[in-house]
Amino acid sequence: MALRFEVLGRFNRARAAQLTLPHFACQTPLFMPVGTQGTIKGLTTDQLEEIGCQIILGNTYHLALRPTSELIDELGGLHKFMNWPRALLTDSGGFQMVSCITNLYVAGIFYTQWHFAYIFQVSLLHLADITEKGVTFQSPVDGKPMLLTPEESIQIQNRIGADIIMALDDVVRTTITGPRIEEAMYRTLRWVDRCIAAHKRPHEQNLFGIVQGGLDPVLRDICVRGLVDRNLPGYAIGGLAGGEDKDSFWRVVAQCTAALPEDKPRYVMGVGYPLDIVVCSALGADMYDCVYPTRTARFGTALVPEGVLKLKHNAMVNDTRPIDPTCACMVCKNYTRAYIHCLVTKDAMGSQLLSYHNLYYMLQLSRNLHSSIVEGRFPECYIIPDSNLCASRNSNVVRFLWQFPKGDVPEWVCNAMDVAGIDISSCCSS
Amino acid sequence: MKFAVKALSSGKARAGVVHLGSCPSSIETPCLLLSTRKGLPIFISPDLLSSLPSPDSNLLQFSPLHLEGASSTLVSSGREVSKRCVNIGQEARWGDTTPNFDSSEGPSPKTISSIGGLHQMVGLHEYGFAAVARDSIQCLPECGSTNKTGASFETPCGRRLIKPVEYMEMITSMKPNLWATLADEVPAWANNKRNKTSVDRTVKWLDECIARSPLLLKLVGRGGQNRVRVNPIGFRVVRAGGAVFGSIVGGSNIEERKRCAQEVAVRNVSGYWIGGFGLGESMEERPSLLNAVTDNLPKDWPRMICGLGLPEEVLQGVAAGVDLFDSAYIYHLTIGGFALTFPLDRTEKIDYNYQLSDQGSDRTKINLRATVYRKDATPIVEDCCCYTCQNHTKAYINHLLNVHEMLAQILLEIHNTHHYLGFFRSIREAIKEGCFEQFQKKFVQSRREHLAADVVSV
Predict the structure, then answer these.
(1) Which one is predicted more confidently, B452 or A289?
(2) Which domain of life does the UniProt lineage start with (chain A) (predicted)?
(3) Which residue in A77, A225, A319, B265 is a FRET match for B6, CA 20 to 30 A apart?
(4) Helix or strand or coil: residue B63?
């Protein structure tokens, strides 16, 4: 184990902690921006430090294809290769093989300027075939069938050298049902043993196990127990954020966080909408990752406390206000909506500035979650829309449920908060 | 704007200083104006821009046309977009251009005014902006469609015809530190008749632009307000909209070049903008064309040029007495994945025994896409102090280019701009030491020898 996890404060199930990794001491809850190919699109590492990014997520699948893990290893690991002094996390590579085709294709349509060649390659990728041995897929480079085994995934991740590495799991869509879910869950448990056995750098890298089991509480329970028995440095809740309904989503998170050990970090994979992060944090999760803030920025959408702001909209053309008047980021301090409007989706600078703002927003949300839990004012600042209370304590708080008119908070949020022991009945319609 | 020549070398090459109201310190010339798109450098965001040497990097060039579009939909003077396309007979062309065309592209002049002008809008308060319609990247003169009412440009939104009145509306709202009057630029192959027309039009538009320039300050004589300058001809008027640079054209015709320069020289301007270069003329004919212009201009006002990019071309411009240069060259290098590497230290002996196997290099620049850099863990230039070289390796940039990541362009634009600013510093030093001619010769010759060596080795 190469991490230390100290809980600094709690609010019912929510917790704020210091997670000390080999390269950085992080404050949780934390959001990890996705730097798929060894860079966060449009930002330099200095800018990422400036806005308070603590962990960057790298995608093993992409890095293994280009520039290859051998090259990264030869040049001293991913930290050195991309010149990022803080923490890194790599995924196992399995998820990308299964999901890449559709995801990137959709993203690429609007973003052809940078991804043109790439989309063509990825869209040729045939559906991956998963067997007990590993994941077989067609190489997007030369079309040959390739096999990714748990051993190989760990070997690649050992070469890349991130602070946190993920066990290879058998990913299935949460929307399907039947015996395939059960098979995937048991296989994930079998594979985690192969991953543990293959892990060559346990004192420098932390191997996280992934809880699978679809939306079935019984399967999730078996999986959590199985992983906890293996005493890993941390645990991830996988197989979510794939199109399941929100009520199922939070119930799985609530079940898993309740069953996972108190003294280990909990990572909800692929979760990134601000509201989801607040709810998951209330339920006791610590880490999140999502391409949403940067991807939506490239589509011209800004994250703001009230929800989202579509900068492409014609209403912005002569709007001389900043994106978010309460935001302290470089972009909001300097630019009007009118100016960003004329850049977005046309000029590289539009993506750069909006990505900067959106990541700042997510990281500020993480910081505010951390401090509000430590200071014992979590529900006041995040849940209950009481402007006076919030304004008096912190002028820059994220007033979370303000995006919903009174009484209009989604039911799943009300239900989740009820389980989290936070009373938001004043905002819920029922 | 204030300008003073401080040193001359080889007769015409000159080193000077330009002071702009918004910049805290004077900028030495000859200098580079950084290319921008809609007022910001193409890939360098404002927080990274400050990592470049200051005040050398504090002069930016922008095209008001980048922010045009809203005006055409908001102003009800019949300048409706669809009408205009029909008018110039370009229907077929419009069909396949961006579908956003009819929606407004940028803020209206009124909005830009209410934001407080360009400096305020792009958040670069301590930078100097020079407005020139042509940017040599996206906005290129299209002389075939230019007519007596206005100049035509190819832009990302299709072909646009800009009249002096529209141009001045933009200048008034954007408040650049200095701006060039609207010009009718023609390529080198234009015939004499077209050339003559372009000179006549450019001079006529100059008068029109000046007449329409915003808020005329009252004429002030010697010893008046410090923004108002006096020249031997008479009173200079500086307008609230910034210093006026009179445009000079004339294509590849020496007589027309001379005539245009003479016409503009007698007018009430604070500097000169030399257009019509980089449009097909040869390297050999350029010096005499440049001299035909600069020989007919007063010595004590700055001269800006558009379209000279390569180091050799810049040296030609400096030799003829040009002070300000645009940097479209940097953009083209960056987009192509190139990084400048030529030695900047003038005393350094250029290494002729450079490894001949060094692919992807022509000894002044390297192509970072080349596979030789795949595992190269060194910076682009070993002792370079730019952000890119201090933080990243060639291998990393090679990877970024391979996977089409935007950070590659950001890092390359930073390095290339930094390097080219260094080149201009060397030029200034050579002029101040009175050895510009040798500097130019040595530079051109060493490049030629390298290229020749490459040909032989192949």
Answers:
(1) A289
(2) Eukaryota
(3) B265
(4) coil
SS3 B7: strand
CB contact under 8 A, B115 and A339: yes
Across B60-74, average pLDDT: 72
Rounded to 5°, the CA angle A114-A117-A119 comes to 85
The pLDDT value given to residue A102: 42
Any CB–CB contact under 8 A between B399 and chain A? yes
DSSP 8-state code for residue B133 = S
**Which DSSP string corresponds to B364-413?**
SEEETTSGGGTT--S-SSTT--SHHHHH--HHHHHHHHHTT-THHHHHHH
Find the residue in A nearest to B392 (Cα): A83
pLDDT at B360: 67
Closest-CA residue of chain B to A353: B45
Q: Exposed, middle or buried: residue B191 (CB in 10 Å: 0-12, 13-18, 19+)?
A: exposed
| B369 Cβ under 8 Å from any chain A Cβ | no
pTM of the full structure: 0.91
Structure tokens at A296: 């939506």
A163 is catalytic: no
Over residues B121-147, the pLDDT tens digits come to 999 999 999 999 999 899 999 999 999
Q: Which among A330, A336, A343 is the nearest to B115, CB-wise? A: A336
Contact B417, B384 (CB under 8 A): no
Contacts of A339 in chain B (CB under 8 A): 38, 107, 115, 121-122
Q: Judge contact between A125 and A165, C-beta under 8 A.
A: no
Structure tokens at A88: 């890194």
Which of B46, B69, B407 lies at the smallest CB-CB distance from A334?
Answer: B46
Contacts of residue A341 in chain B, CB cutoff 8 Å?
106-107
Instruction: For residue A47, give the nearest of B47, B393, B404 by CB distance.
Output: B47
Long-range contacts of B333-338 (CB under 8 A, 24+ apart): B333/B365, B333/B412, B333/B416, B334/B42, B334/B43, B334/B409, B334/B412, B334/B413, B334/B416, B335/B409, B336/B367, B337/B367, B337/B368, B337/B369, B337/B401, B337/B408, B337/B412, B338/B365, B338/B366, B338/B367, B338/B368, B338/B412, B338/B416
ipTM of the complex: 0.92
Residue A289 falls in the annotated catalytic set: yes
Query: Which residues in chain B touch residue A62, judged by CB atoms under 8 angstroms apart?
Result: 403
The number of C-beta contacts closer than 8 angstroms across A and B is 136
Q: Is the peptide bond before A29 cis (omega within 30 degrees of 0)?
A: yes
Residue pair A181/A166 in contact (Cβ under 8 Å)? The answer is no
- Any idea which residue has 């966060």 for tokens? A40
By C-alpha distance, which of B145, B163, B232 is closest to B204? Answer: B163
Give the distance from residue B102's alpha carbon to the nearest chain A alpha carbon, in angstroms: 11
Q: Are B174 and B122 in contact (CB under 8 A)?
A: no
Best of B407, B412, B415 to mutate (most A CBs within 10 Å, chain A): B407
Give the DSSP H or E segment for B305.
strand B303-305
